[in-house]
Amino acid sequence: MSARRLGNLVIGLCAAVSTLPLAAHAGPARFDFMEYIATGQDAPAPEGSYRNPILPGFQPDPSIVQVGSDFYLVNSTFSWFPGLPIFHSTDLVNWRLVTNAIDRPGMVDFSGLGTNRGLFAPAITHHDGKFWIVNTCIDCRGNFVITADRAEGTWSDPAWLDFGGIDPSLTFDEEGRAWIVYNDAPPGEPLYEGHRAIWMKRFDTEAMQVTGDPILLVNGGVDLSAQPVWAEGPHIYHIDGWYYLTAAEGGTAEQHSQTIYRSRSVTGPYVAGPRNPILTQRDLPADRPDRVEATGHADLVQLEDGSWWGVFLATRPFQGQSTLLGRETFLLPVEWRDGWPIFLDKGEAVPLVVEAPDLPASPGEPWAQWRDDFDDPLSDEWIGIRNPAAKPLVEVAEAQSELVLDPSTDAAGSLGKPAFIGRRLRHHSADIITQMDFDPEAPGDFAGLLAFMDESHFIAVGVEEGQVTVRRRTSADQDQYGETVAAVPLTDAGEIELRMSLDRGTAVFAWRPAGSTQWQTIAGQVDVEPLASVYAGLFTGMVVGPYAVTRP
Description:
- The chain is mainly β.
- The protein has 2 domains: 29-34 and 368-549, Jelly Rolls (Sandwich), CATH 2.60.120.200; 50-355, Glycosyl hydrolase domain, family 43 (Tachylectin-2, Chain A), CATH 2.115.10.
- It has strands at residues 29-38, 49-51, 63-67, 70-74, 80-81, 83-89, 96-102, 118-127, 130-138, 142-148, 159-160, 166-172, 178-184, 197-204, 209-219, 232-239, 242-249, 257-263, 271-272, 279-280, 293-302, 308-315, 328-337, 340-342, 353-355, 369-372, 384-385, 394-397, 402-405, 419-420, 423-424, 429-437, 446-454, 457-464, 467-473, 483-489, 496-503, 506-513, 520-527, 543-549.
- Strands 1, 26, 28, 29, 32, 37, 38 and 39 form an 8-stranded antiparallel sheet that branches.
- A hairpin with a 6-residue loop joins strand 38 (506-513) and strand 39.
- Residues 1-24 have low confidence and may be disordered.
- This is Glycoside hydrolase family 43 protein.
- InterPro entries: ConA-like_dom_sf (IPR013320), GH43_C2 (IPR041542), Glyco_hydro_43 (IPR006710), Glyco_hydro_beta-prop_sf (IPR023296), Glycosyl_Hydrlase_43 (IPR051795).
- It comes from Croceicoccus marinus.
- The record marks 167 as: Important for catalytic activity, responsible for pKa modulation of the active site Glu and correct orientation of both the proton donor and substrate.
């Protein structure tokens, strides 16, 4: 069931918890629209080419599968709900969000989890007419598998799997046997920090459970003597009589890379390829133009013309390793040399403009500019923090074309259920505008726009008692509601518009009475670089949208 079909239940922007934080003072905050306008856009790619990333913004850990002329791709979502977005394309370049695989209350439980926990690294597979996703829910029951007859859903409830580790991926060998390959602790005591191993177990597709003893495929990484760290995200492909195992190595920051191994048997032994890593940017100069970092966590697909392509995650920092966008999904052709695949030679930079594959054109999402007037159920692009609640904190009032938020006592900096719904920031520079009506009734009542990286890293602009305020949190030591950066008197009663203008590491905040053409600045050139994902656990990216809170 997609988010759109959930209608006024609002896609679970709310959460299945035993106690629901109710507003102590404030009445509802009403939002008439939200508009997103990318500014400072790159020129369109030349005809026959495409521009990386193919999925901009918070879209990490991509996994891809081809079924006939259709491609489907899934990403990590951690403790955001709905989770595991599934995209469709026919040309590998332009993608449409068709559903979220985790879209029903009770499928998983994110209550009390930070936004760097939850759903890590899903892997999507298709076999004998059925789609499979295997995934790990960190701090929420571990590994599971879900299935669907169609990628667009409905997806089954999770079947929980009895083994440890993370990043499971399902593969079928030439005899039709199913296997799950995954990351876990190495045999014996770890030799160093970050020492991991790649393992395999048989999977019974009828019982929906792993069987037998684990089989060690890779200990540590390509060269154990070099103390490789965080071997993870494995996938296995059967190609021309060989089983190829690809895995990430080096951690998901600037040392990230992709490696390759092969074996004549699905269970190994696996031998590392002669050119490893087959993808990395860690050896390139920091002052290069159009800098892409943190490349890895790749998945491969072969087209009908015999060519190979791979999706992978990477970042586009605006300085150092800082980006508000988080880890994004990129696409590159894969070359085969002497029986081994390779993305880029050592020292070769990820190109941002690439010749497109020769495939039927596919429509893409209008990410650069969109507007939601809240006169229809919310699309699958809208996500909230943690589970859906017994009583919605966020609802669409279609008859009034309004998004209505019941302020929660759980602030953005808490591990509870904030009254917040947002969409991913997808550009370094963007204006986000909303029109709202809110009547704060006590000190601490606040409603407006929130730009959220994680519980300790966010910034908000909104209405408080008698003023319009910018609040920011850059550390867990600060007030969970955020600390005041700037405030100006609210000189007009009634509906107002708010604008948040993000530009890499700075932001400008403004307001105006509804119907006015003159923006009034609340704060200019606010430093938002401390909100970058590199300071917030690296996993997520910024999500922006309406927010309402009241102090208990």
